[in-house]
Amino acid sequence: MKILITGAAGFIGFHMVMKYIQTTCEVFGLDNINDYYDLGLKYDRLAECGINKTKIVYGETIKSSLWNNYSFIKMDIHNDNGMNNLFQSEKFDLVIHLAGQAGVRYSLVNPKSYIESNVVGFLNILEGCRHTH
What we know:
- The protein is an alpha/beta fold.
- Helix content is about 45%, strand content about 15%.
- Strands 3-4-2-1-5 form a 5-stranded mixed sheet, sandwiched between helices.
- Helix 3 (about 80-90) runs parallel beside helix 5 (about 110-130).
- The longest helix has 22 residues, at about 110-130.
- The mean pLDDT is about 95.
């Protein structure tokens, strides 16, 4: 089974990745690694999964150095072309969508970012699922 976990550098996403990489599933983690939360914490979580931050390039898949069934991609879920290409090329069997712009107060300060991630990004996830199965 091939699984996509969005928000993979977040608290819940990281723990979900850790759960699934200990199975026989092929796991893809996706996160935009924005600075809303502590970047050091996000990179530490990725490192625990075998992802070296110096090798992360936006839009490119990187294989884990610790788990042969784990790959990570840094991407915004509101990136229409990137998400479409990812879904078309990987044909995920299961999507666990945990990415999104957190913080209600932040949505008042920067509503466009909030809408892009939480509405447009979620639509991209739904469309990716719809068009690949």
